[in-house]
Amino acid sequence: MFIENLYNIHNTCYVNILELTGKKVRTSIYSLLYALGFFYNVLKAIGGFFKKRQVGYKVLVMQILFTGFEALIINVVMAIAIGAAVIIIGTGFLPQFGQTKLMYQILILIITRELGPLLTAFVVTARSGTAIATELGTMVVNNEIEAYIASGINPISYLAVPRLIGVTVSMLVLTIYFNIFGLLGSFTVVQLFKAIPIREYLSNLMQVLQLKDIFLGMLKALIFGMIIAVMSMFQGFSVNRASTEIPVAGIKAVGSCIVLIVIADVFVTVIQYVG
Fold first, then answer.
1. Cα angle at 82 between 81 and 86, to 5 degrees?
2. φ, ψ at 49 (rounded to 5°)
C-alpha cells in the first residue's frame, strides 16, 4: 500500500512538473510574439517621428544623455582595462612562440568584434534597461499612459520611439568609444609597465584592422541597442496596476535582454565565420 501511494505521488509530481513546464513555454512564446508585435508597431511609428509637431524630442535627448553620456566613463574604464590586459599578456606570452603579431589580431577580435559591443550592451542593459522598464511601469500604474491616450498623444510615438532611437544611437557611440580607448587608450597605460614603440604598435594594428571588423562590431551594437530598448519598454508597458510589479518588470527586462543579446551575438558570429 505504501509503495502504491508513493508511486501515485511520484506520478502526480511528474505530471505537475510537465504541466508547469508546458505552461511556462507557452507563456514565453506568447510574450515573444507580443514583443515582436510591439517592435513592429514601434518601427512603423519611427517614420513619422520627425514629421509631427508633438514628438518626444526632449525624451530623445534625455535618453541619449542618460544612456550614452553618463555611461561613458564606465565604458572607457572597461575598454582601457581589457585592452591593457590583452597587450600585457600578449607581449609577455606570445614572443615565446614567435607569434608577436598575433597579439594584434587577438586585440582586434576581443575589442572590436566581440567584447566591445557585448560588454557595452551589458552596461546599457544594467543601467538603461532597468530604468526604462521601471519608468514606464510607474507611468502605467499612475495612469499616465491613459492620460496620454485621452489627450490624443500616441504613447508609442511619444514614449517608445525616442527611447528606441536614443538607446540605439547611444549603443553605437559607446561601442565606437570602446574601440578607440580599447585599442589606443590601453596602449598609453601599457607604457607604464612595458614600453612599446608607438609607430610599431600603430603599424601592426593597422595591418590587422579591417573595415569588416568595424562593420561587424557596429552591426552587433545596432542589434543589441534595439533589443535592449524594445524588451525594456515591452516589460515596462506590461505592468498592470500593482506597484509591486514595477521591480519585477525591471528584473524581467534585464534577464530577457541578456538572453536575447547572447543569442544574437552567437547568431551574428556564426554567420560571420560561416559566411
1. 115
2. -65, -45
pLDDT per residue as tens digits for the range 44-64: 888 777 776 556 788 888 899
Distance spanning both ends of the chain, measured CA to CA: 63
Do 41 and 139 fall within a single domain?
A: no
Q: Are residues 208 and 233 in the same domain?
A: yes
The verdict on 42 and 56 lying in the same domain is no
CA–CA gap between residue 169 and residue 63 (Å, rounded): 10
Q: How far apart are CA 109 and CA 89, in angstroms?
A: 15
Task: Determine the distance from the C-alpha atom of residue 123 to the mean position of all C-alpha atoms in its chain, rounded to a whole number.
Answer: 7
Q: pTM for this structure?
A: 0.85
Co-location of 62 and 108 in the same domain: yes
**Residue 237 domain boundaries:** 50-274
Cβ–Cβ < 8 Å for 177, 79:
yes
Please give the Cα distance from 229 to 163 (Å, whole number): 7
- Please give the Cα distance from 178 to 174 (Å, whole number): 6
* Contact call for residues 94 and 194 (beta carbons, < 8 A): no
